[in-house]
Each structure stands twice: as C-alpha cells, then as structure tokens.
Amino acid sequence: MNKNEWPYVTPGIPDDNFIQGKTPLTREEVRVVILTKSRLKRNQVIYDIGAGTGTISIEASLLVAEGTVYAVEKDPEALTLLHKNKEKFGVDNLIIVEGNAAEVMEGLPAADRIIIGGSGGKLKEILELSKDKLKKGDYVTVSAVTLDTLGESQILLGQQPWESFQTVQISVTRVVEIAEYKMLRALNPIYVMSAKRGG
Amino acid sequence: MNKNEWPYVTPGIPDDNFIQGKTPLTREEVRVVILTKSRLKRNQVIYDIGAGTGTISIEASLLVAEGTVYAVEKDPEALTLLHKNKEKFGVDNLIIVEGNAAEVMEGLPAADRIIIGGSGGKLKEILELSKDKLKKGDYVTVSAVTLDTLGESQILLGQQPWESFQTVQISVTRVVEIAEYKMLRALNPIYVMSAKRGG
Amino acid sequence: MNKNEWPYVTPGIPDDNFIQGKTPLTREEVRVVILTKSRLKRNQVIYDIGAGTGTISIEASLLVAEGTVYAVEKDPEALTLLHKNKEKFGVDNLIIVEGNAAEVMEGLPAADRIIIGGSGGKLKEILELSKDKLKKGDYVTVSAVTLDTLGESQILLGQQPWESFQTVQISVTRVVEIAEYKMLRALNPIYVMSAKRGG
Amino acid sequence: MNKNEWPYVTPGIPDDNFIQGKTPLTREEVRVVILTKSRLKRNQVIYDIGAGTGTISIEASLLVAEGTVYAVEKDPEALTLLHKNKEKFGVDNLIIVEGNAAEVMEGLPAADRIIIGGSGGKLKEILELSKDKLKKGDYVTVSAVTLDTLGESQILLGQQPWESFQTVQISVTRVVEIAEYKMLRALNPIYVMSAKRGG
After folding, report:
1. Which residues of chain C are within 8 Å of residue D38 when distances are taken between CB atoms?
2. Number of residue pairs across A and D with CB atoms under 8 Å?
3. Interface test with C, best of A29, A147, A168, A184 (most C CBs within 10 A)
4. Cβ–Cβ gap D184/B148 under 8 Å
5. SS3 readout for chain A
6. How far is CA B137 from CA B111, B163, D143, in A?
7. How far apart are alpha carbons A66 and C6 in whole angstroms?
8. Do C146 and A182 touch (CB under 8 A)?
C-alpha cells in the first residue's frame, strides 16, 4: 500500500498495514480520535512528537496532502520502523527528524499543529517550545497512556496560553475470534487531550 | 457553520454544533469511529439508516463531497432536526428520505456504503435489502447501543454474503469541569460492527 | 496462606496468591463482583462450573464456611491447579469434581447457588440441569468473556423459570508501574449475569 | 430491610435498597470493590470519610459486625439520608459524625481502616491526620471520581509512610430494559486507590 493506495476520505488505516516491531503502535480506533481532536487542515505543518512506529505521522501526511509532517523520534528501533513505514506508504511530505524533541524542535519551521504521543519525560519543555512554534488558534494534542502524563498535562494545558482544553478517555475492546469463540479483548485505555493556543 | 465552514480534513464535528432535541445524538468520538469503519470514498452513494438527528449523515455528506447521502428516518421529531441540521450545514448532497427503511430502501438508487444506526427492530430486513443495494466489496456498518442489536448483528453479519466481519466496542469518558472539579463522565458504550459484501 | 490466613470479611484474594498456570484466572476485582451477584449465604451448597484455576471456588469456600463448594472442571491442566490451590488454601469444604458439567452435575446433591464461569459450549444443557438442582429463590450466575456466551445467556436467562435477570459489564484497568511510569493496563471486560429461579 | 435482613456473606446491597436523594450514591459493583480493597476485618474501627448517603458506611457496619464505623459527613442533605439509612438498616455500630473531616477526625478514636469517598478539597489534611489515626499495616482507601483527586492521591499515597500503593479504574455498564430493548448504560468510571501505612 502507498499513498495512492489508501483510497478513503477518513483516516483509520488498519493496524496490520503498518510494519510493526515490539513497540506497541497507536491502534486504529484511537488514532482516528487523536487525529480528529487535532483538527487538521490541508497544507498545514504538523509535528508528530514521539512518532514511534509512525502511524499518526503517516495518517497525518495523507490527510494534510500538500502540507508537511515532521516526525520526531529518538529511539533507534522506532526510527527504523518509521523509515520503513514512510517508504511503504510513499509519503514524501513526511520528514523524519532524529533526536530528542526538546532539542530538535527549535530548529524546525513553525507548526500549525503539534501532536505529542510521547514526551520522554520532557512534556513541560516540549509544551514550552510548542508555544513558540504555534500561533494563536493552533492546536496541540497530547495522548497519555500513563497517569504521569495525564497528571502533568492536566496542569500544563490548564494554563495560559492554552485554552479550550479538553480531555477524553477512549477505551476500545475488540472482538477477536479464537477457536470459534468471539473473545472480548481490551486495548489499554488512552487519554486524549487537546488545547488551543490563546493570544 | 455550513459546508464551507467545517475546514478540517477529518470528521469530528463537536456535538454542540448540531441542533439537538431530546434524542441522544451519536457523539463526536464514536461518530469518527463509525465513519472510519465505513471506509468512505469521494463520490460514493451512502445510506444512513435511522439517521436520527443527522450527525452521521452530515459528516458523511462533507466527506463524500460530490457523492450523495440518503438519510432514512421515520420519527417525525428526528426528521425535523435532520432538516434543520441539513440547512445549518448547507449540505446539498444530503437527501432526507422519510419512512421505514425496510419500505423505502427499495426505491433508492444503488449504494456504495450502508451505515445502520437504527433499525427499529427490522435489522434482518434492512440487511436483506442491503445485499441487493451493495455490490461486491462494498461495506455495511452497524452500530449497536443495545444487546439486542449486538446479538442480531453477530448472527446476521457472520453469514454470507458478508465477509471480513469485525466488531469493536468503544467506551468514551469525557472530563467535564463542574465547580472547578474535573469530573469523569462516561458516555454509554457502543458496539461498531462492519462487514464487506462478498461475491 | 490457608483458610485461617485470609483474615478479611470480604472476598478479594489478590491474584498472585493463587498458584497459576497458563489459563487466565478471574481477576480479583471481577471475582468480587461475581461473588457479590451470587448472593451467597453461610452453609449453602455452591457449584462452581468451569472452575478453572479455582479462584471463585476458593473464595466461595471461605465465604460459605460450613457450606460446601463443588468445583466442576474437565481440563486436566486446570484440575492440577485446582487441587494445588485447594491444598494451598486448606479449604476442606471444597470438593473437586472431574468431568463435563453436563454429565456430572446430575450426580451432585441439590445446590443453593450455581456459578457458571465456563460452559464448554454446553450452557443450554447446564442451565437445564441447574433448574432441577436449584429451588425457587435460588440464584444462578453466569460470567461471559465471549459474545457467544453473552448472547446465549441473554436468551436462556430471559426465559422461565429464570426471573430478576440482570446483566452488568465490568471493565477493570490496573495501574502498573513500569520503569517509574504508571501505565494503564486494561483487563478484558467481562459480562456478569445473574437470575433467580422462579416458581 | 435491617441488619438482620441482609442475609448474605458478601457486601453488595442493591442501590435501590438505600434511601436516596439527589446526591449520586456509590453503586453496588463499585462499592464491593472499594470494600474489598479496604481489607476489612471483624471488630475493626473504620472511618468512612465523606460518607454521603451512607452506602459504604452501612455495608462496612454489617461486615465488621462488632466493630464500629464512624461516618463523617458535612453536607446537611447527605446527613439526613445517612441518618435515615442507618435507621433503615438498623446498624447500631454506625456512628454518624457531623462536620469537616479535617476538623472532626482528631477527636475520633484510633482507626484500623480509613475509607475516603469525599475529601472536600482537603485530601492532604485528611491523609495527614490518617497517618496518626492508623498504625503500621493498616489500610487507607481513596476513591476518585475526578482527575483532581486522582492526581492528588497519586502524589500523596506514593510517599512515606504509605506503602503497597495500588490503583485500579472500575467501569461498570449496566444493561437496562427500556421498551423491550436491552440498553447499555454506563456508570461513570471511578478510580479506587489503596495503600498500607508503613512503619
């Protein structure tokens, strides 16, 4: 599958279309909620911080079309997968940036949207830099799979210049057929938070 | 807001953008999962069966753009809201069809996707008609807020000509600020099922 | 730990107190809901059908004290664990019955409560036998981790002689510390159903 | 129903057995998890802080039997319900204490268990006092329906003298029959946290 092979007008590429490693990827149903809450527009510049396997980056690249997605990641194994997935989906507008977000963000062009999927314990610094990269009315989206990130985000995004802060928890259970039984299989819940940069 | 005022490349119109009555509407986060699982393409013909307030119909109308959405609904109160929301969003490609799906579907042009949000106890008949309206490779999506629809769908969509049947349960909890407290407020869980029409 | 070493007045033995194999056991939080819905009294005779590792059986044995628990199980590996856990907890009022419930239930003394955690595809037969073993006002409890058992239970327990049928879905997420992060880890959701035998 | 009329060996009094006001009460399934995590023993002294309608207090009174439960509550409306429910269930070992926990706790006798269902923004003070009231090996249990209490508890219970800190989120969905349909109705999720007082 490549860019021309995702023929649908919504995100939601099935998980197994991505080349995966040991790192758990953001699952289809959760991914579409994160992307939805990010309020993407065509031609925008997006950062995907802690891009991991690249699932959000690739969906975002397809959605913004002539826009650009910067996928920031520091983990070598994740970077390998990120490159493979970029190639697989043929998304030329996806630029992979190697390094700690807190260090490399400064060098990137201004952004319209910042999606933070992993912050490596540097959420405060990343949000501080995000203020400078975004202009009034732009959105930041943070997803949290830990109570640490949840708690920190509640404090940081509840402050100026962040506005219209909202939080949802998404729990997905998939029905999986095992030996003719339809088993209920829970995915881990995730908190998705978004806020708008105020004036 | 009208068609030209939803500037984003994903669905996910906030709930309070819709004109609402007493009928509960399909909430933003669940709506995007239903739309995602429906695998919509531009220019397609979509049926939204049991359209209710019209949230899915309107999002689908915006997504398929030059395609057409037939919103089938029988409840007078819901129909009033459906017309108001169509007008509010200025979606000319949304056609409201009054009546029982099992009776009016036959008269509609062939469909590429059928999304069933309400079946009024006639799921079997609606799926029977859906077989005729869809061609090989097309998708049907059923959402269930009751164990009745869940159970019936599991049987009906597990049979020929339906293939690639999948089921997910989505539970969304929103964080709502009440008197400076961030309360966890659960939305009712919903099962989203989809299947492809086989040959 | 043995019978005299669970000093608390509620059930809820931590999972890791049980000797475990590959079979997933019913987790503490779900177990207490199943036991609660079973409305156990001292001195009662309880069947635990599909007893598995024996977590429900052991908790029930401690709760009914001078009553008796019959743990019915057919899987050899589970039976080994069941015996080991019986020994570990020193519950003399727990009687392990080897075999298919549909075959061995008939030979057991009358029951006051029947808890069905696994039915091996024979739920209908087991509930049929349960009617004969229980008297008016007694309870049956069924837990379901599959949509199959859920669907079948909805039909079977919705009929005479079953009354006061109720269903709840329990989803538990545990916070687990991994490398100083508090990760959200979902357990699979489970449906717990209970009904009273009518006249 | 009174003390002698709850004939079961587990907690789990159905919600509608309690006299209820506008304040939402802790639901049966969640209540049993809170009580379970509190590791109650017969003859113990329990505080139920922010007792509300008294559901936890009454269940605890029945469980500890010859022990004593102090139900601390400041809201006049809740206090009225608390008195009514005490009377209804005939629990003589339940002592209702009117006032702010942070102020009245000091005057109470030493406790074996402290269950905090509401803290009125004074969780820190209440936990500080709890340290003095509990001895080594005793448990405190905090339930949180807000991200505020969740976040604060994570910090406070993660410190000395608190040990063996654990957190679970419980989400319950009830199946409710409405016009012959079995509707899925979510209760709001709740976080239940417990910790042991260290040396």
Report:
1. 10
2. 16
3. A184
4. no
5. CCHHHCCCCCCCCCHHHCCCCCCCCCCHHHHHHHHHHCCCCCCCEEEEECCCCCHHHHHHHHHHCCCEEEEEECCHHHHHHHHHHHHHHCCCCEEEEECCHHHHHHHCCCCCEEEECCCCCCHHHHHHHHHHHCCCCCEEEEEECEHHHHHHHHHHCCCCCEEEEEEEEEEEEEEEEECCEEEEEECCCEEEEEEEECC
6. 12, 9, 49
7. 65
8. yes
Residues of B with CB below 8 A from A29's CB? 33, 36, 168, 170
C-alpha closest to that of C170 among B56, D33, B135, B137: D33
Residue D1 has pLDDT above 60, yes or no: no
**Candidates C33, C64, C173; nearest CB to D32:** C33
Mutate: best of D23, D27, D122, D146, partner B, most B CBs <10 A: D146
Decide if B37 contacts B113 (C-beta within 8 A): no
Using CA atoms of D29, D30, D33, D39 in order, give the dihedral in degrees to the nearest 10.
Answer: -120
Q: Is the pLDDT of residue D2 over 60?
A: no
Q: Is the pLDDT of residue C32 over 80?
A: yes
The upper half-sphere exposure of residue C133, i.e. CA atoms within 13 Å in the direction of its Cβ, equals 27
Angle at A189 between CA A186 and CA A191, to 5 degrees: 165
Name every chain B residue with its beta carbon within 8 A of the beta carbon of A59.
Answer: none
Tell me the pLDDT tens digit for each residue of C145-166. Answer: 999 999 999 999 999 999 999 9
Q: Collapsing DSSP states into helix, strand and coil, what is residue C166? A: strand
Residue B29 and residue A33: Cβ atoms within 8 Å? yes
B169 to chain C: which residues are within 8 Å by CB?
A: 189
* Chains near D (3 or more Cβ pairs under 8 Å): A, B, C
List beta partners, residue C96.
C71
Q: Work out the number of other CB atoms within 10 angstroms of the CB of residue D72.
A: 28
pLDDT range class, residue A2, cuts 50, 70, 90: low
Beta-carbon neighbour count of residue C110 at 10 Å? 10
| Residue range C40-95, pLDDT digits in tens | 999 999 999 999 999 999 999 999 999 999 999 999 999 999 999 999 999 999 99
Taking an 8 Å cut-off on Cβ atoms, the answer to whether C167 and B147 are in contact is yes
pLDDT of residue C178: 94
Contacts of D171 in chain B (CB under 8 A): 171, 173, 186
Q: Which among D154, D171, D189 has the least Cβ separation from residue A151?
A: D154
Q: What confidence score (pLDDT) does residue D186 get?
A: 98
| Crossing angle for the helix pair D147-156 and A147-156, to the nearest 10 degrees | 120
Condensed to tens digits (0 to 9), the pLDDT of residues B124-143 reads: 999 999 999 999 999 999 99
Nearest CA-CA distance, residue A153 and chain C, Å: 14
pLDDT band at C3 (very low <50, low <70, confident <90, very high): low
Written as six digits, the tokens of A59 are 């969906």
- Residue D8's identity, in one-letter code, is Y
The span from the CA of D37 to the CA of C29, in Å, is 9
**pTM of the complete model:** 0.96
Q: What is the CA radius of gyration of chain D?
A: 16
A-chain CB neighbours of C146 within 8 Å are 181-184
Q: Are D166 and D194 in contact (CB under 8 A)?
A: yes
pLDDT in tens, A54-99: 999 999 999 999 999 999 999 999 999 999 999 999 999 999 999 9
Q: ipTM of this model?
A: 0.95
Which chain D residues are within 8 Å of B146, Cβ to Cβ? 181-184
Degrees to nearest 5, angle at CA C112 with C108 and C115: 80
The nearest CA of chain C is from the CA of D103 a distance in Å of: 30
